[in-house]
Design goal:
The protein is about 50% helix and about 20% strand. The strands form 3 sheets. It has a 5-stranded antiparallel sheet with strand order 5-4-3-7-6. It has a 3-stranded antiparallel sheet with strand order 8-9-10.
């Protein structure tokens, strides 16, 4: 119940609730006449079918509004399953409130509103629990299916040369920096306690997306650096900025002004 909720974020993904739940309410009430509802709603000179269609329309309108609000909030708030459970109970509560109001009006005030409200709570919750549970179970199954079929996350970085041949596989945490050098890139990394270089015949552009997704940041037109290896950023009298690294044997790396802010915020 405390796990992160994963459902569609768009309003379109909520249309199933808006359509299916009211349809279930009408169909279930017609087929099974729960709690003798058909007899209870033969009031005001109208058939029970008329009342059920009106109630289903009210339910659809409520869901159209609440699901619009939900889809807007869900894009910005990390909902948990228990939050969503409360939300669903709230939707049924609002429907029961309007259901009681509608019923009281058609009975011309013959019954106390709160007496009718208690009955409507029973009708609403005990009927609508089925479609809500069904839709939630379907969503859980879909989430589990996605998890089972998801491709495993690649933990190692793989570097290929210009001919797409694999040349180096490395833990991204061991990578210190990448430097462009003519038709090559120099990969500087930790191997146990030693700093090593590997020259790869490839362009900076060909490795940019791969390393940017694994924690390295661009600090210069010709350099990427792993922020965890940066000791400090130093600026000289001329305004030139360099990144001093934790390992003294590794030369400092130039930092362009356009990348200075992003790198400094990561230190």
């Amino acid at each position: 119940m405390n796990t992160r909720l994963r459902i569609g974020k768009t309003y379109k993904s909520q249309l199933l609730y808006i359509v299916l739940i009211p349809a279930f309410f009408v169909g279930f009430s017609f087929l099974y006449n729960p709690f003798g509802m058909k007899e209870y709603y033969q009031v005001g000179g109208m058939s029970f079918g008329f009342h059920f269609v009106i109630l289903a329309t009210i339910l659809m309108a409520i869901l159209a509004i609440t699901r619009l609000v939900f889809s807007a909030l869900y894009k910005h708030i990390p909902f948990r399953w228990w939050h969503y459970t409360i939300w669903c109970f709230g939707e049924v509560f609002v429907f029961a409130f309007f259901m009681a109001l509608y019923t009281t009006l058609f009975y011309n005030g013959q019954f106390n509103y709160f007496v009718v409200l208690s009955l409507c709570f029973k009708y609403a919750y005990l009927i609508l629990i089925y479609p809500y549970l069904f839709l939630v179970l379907i969503q859980i199954i879909l989430n589990k299916d996605k998890d089972l079929n998801a491709e495993p996350v690649e933990t190692l970085l793989k570097f290929y040369d210009e001919h797409k041949r694999l040349k180096l596989t490395i833990d991204p945490a061991a990578l210190i920096s990448i430097q462009a050098d003519a038709n090559y890139v120099i990969l500087r990394y930790m191997d146990a306690d030693r700093v090593k270089d590997f020259m790869l015949r490839a362009s900076m552009k060909s490795v940019e997306n791969t390393v940017a997704q694994r924690g390295l940041v661009r600090c210069h037109r010709s350099y990427f650096v792993n922020p965890k290896y940066v000791k400090l950023l130093r600026k000289n009298k001329e305004g030139m900025i360099t990144a001093e690294l934790l390992h003294p044997e590794v030369p400092s790396i130039p930092v362009s002004k356009q990348f200075y802010k992003e790198l400094s915020e990561l230190l």
